[in-house]
């Protein structure tokens, strides 16, 4: 059966139904136009900084999935941070630069290896990484559809450190 193929032969296959969050990643800064993480996720966009554009509610370039492994992804492209810009990179399934930890209570998106948080740079209208500060509204992000029940299941069933809080 298909489940055997996925589990035994192709375990790295991403199944969208197992995502713990999906939809827009909206910045929660007060008094500003709501901005969303935006990219076409074409191969020509790989290695380029992710964009921020006014949220439009139509999915498309602003539709993202947070996998149970802590990847923020669309199709085969994952959000990646190697110390400079937040970019798209082909998903590799090894965590590292592509591991993101979302705290649904503080709304922070923390990078798993650097420990820094994703922030909306209002001056340059782009993403930047900064020391985490739950009082900084430019670091608060809302996943349009976050499934706390599914997040709790993955948190308790995983033998690895969880990307979910």
UniProtKB/TrEMBL annotation:
One of its GO terms (biological process) is protein O-linked glycosylation. The gene is pgant9_2. Gene3D superfamilies: 2.80.10.50. This is Putative polypeptide N-acetylgalactosaminyltransferase 9. GO terms for cellular component: Golgi apparatus. Residues 27-144 form the Ricin B lectin domain. It comes from the Eukaryota. The lineage of its organism: Eukaryota, Metazoa, Ecdysozoa, Arthropoda, Chelicerata. It holds the Pfam family Ricin_B_lectin. Keywords: Disulfide bond, Lectin, Transferase. InterPro entries: Ricin_B-like_lectins, Ricin_B_lectin. PANTHER family: N-ACETYLGALACTOSAMINYLTRANSFERASE, POLYPEPTIDE N-ACETYLGALACTOSAMINYLTRANSFERASE 9-RELATED. GO terms for molecular function: carbohydrate binding; polypeptide N-acetylgalactosaminyltransferase activity.
